Amino acid sequence: MTYLDVVFNCGALPGENELRAIDSMREVYGIRRVQFNGKERTVRVEFDASRLKQDAVARMLRQAGIDVREPVVLA
Asked: What's the whole-model pTM score?
């Protein structure tokens, strides 16, 4: 397994319903951790890159109701 982090900018922080959907997203094989940063308005997802691609992670976040925007370039 190769774990990677991807960070996306968010338009709005998640509410209760979105957080429930995120919780069920963690059950998907390959998603290890999801963290929100309210100050920077970002979401960081640690995922198994041998199972998922960045686009698939963004799609799952959108399906959970998160206003995902462009990815942040990590240094």
From this structure: 0.87
